[in-house]
Structure formats: structure tokens, C-alpha cells
Amino acid sequence: MDDKKYKYHPLKNAQVAVTQQLQQSSFRPNLTVNLTLRENPLGHLTNLWDKGLTQTQFGIIEGCFSRFYNHLAKACYGRNWKRLSKKNNDKELKIFGTIEVSKNQQFHLHCAALIPAHLTEDEFIKRVKRCWAKIYYASNHVDNFEIIYYVDGWVSYISKHLNKHNSMGYISYSKL
Fold first, then answer.
1. Per-position pLDDT tens, the chain of length 176
2. CA separation, residue 53 to residues 59, 102, 107, 122 (Å)
3. Which end of the chain is more exposed for a tag (fewer CB within 10 A), N or C?
4. Is the domain defined by 27-39+49-172 classed in CATH 3.30.70?
5. Boundaries of every domain in the chain
């Protein structure tokens, strides 16, 4: 069987797949963002062994990230951010995140973001904090904003658990 005629090749390592996707998209983030959720979205202990429950938890957290992305895009580019992003790729908020569960069963998001060209680092961080505070499950604990000097290293770090049970996946609402 000639593998070259097939476009789809399943990768055994999800971390490699994520890294390749980001490299092919030419997404070069320059800021790390860690966002913590205040409680379990389902109101009881985190369950990572029941696939149905895990998918429900993932759906809730993905919804939180989607609302956060919408608030942040509006804060960075104004009310017409959707129209602007369709017309000009440079006017789109670019952010990528992975969902992890810490040892104390607390959900958090590791993100890599590209600071919009018209904003300073401090202005963007203030907008991230303000927009994250609007999310229902958001914790007041937003920390670890750092400049990314080695993109592949950060992407490798935030995707380290994609094959394990304590990471539920990755989220991207940018055209990556």
C-alpha cells in the first residue's frame, strides 16, 4: 500500500500533532496566559474516567473559553471584531489553549496568545484579566503572564498531557 496517495496520516502522539498544526499555521505566540476556574463545572468531584462526564466537563470549559475569547476579541478590536477578522487576518485575536486538571482537581487553561500589534503587553494583560473576570466559572487567580521566547518549548509544555487522562484537549478559536 502506497502511503503517499493518502492525505490523512493518523499521528500516534497528540503533542506532535498539535505542534505540527501550530507550525504549519505560522502562529507565533508571544505571551503565556494561565487561567484558573474557580470550581468544578459540574459541582462535584472531577471525574476523568467516565468518558461521558469528561466530555460534559470539557463542553462547559470550552464554552467558558469561547465566551472569554469573544469578550477579549471585542475588548481588543471593538464590536465589529468578527467582520474585521473575516476581512483581515491581522485583525483577528490569536489564542490557543489546553485544558488541564491540577493535582488538587482544579481545572485550568494554559494559553499561548499573540499580543495584537496595536496594544502594549500591559494593555493586553489588563484586558485579559478584565475579560476573564466576566466568565461565570472564572477564578480571581489569573497569573503567569510571561513573554514567550521559545515558542516550540511553550507549546510542548502546554501540550504535555494531551495523551494522559488529566488533560481533556485543546481549544482554538483562531484560524490556526
1. 444 444 433 434 667 777 777 778 777 889 999 888 877 666 665 566 666 677 777 778 888 888 999 999 999 999 988 888 888 877 888 888 888 877 777 788 888 899 999 999 999 999 999 999 999 888 877 667 888 888 777 877 777 766 665 455 656 656 55
2. 10, 18, 14, 38
3. N
4. yes
5. 27-39+49-172
The grid coordinates listed for 15 are 503533542
Amino acid at 166: N
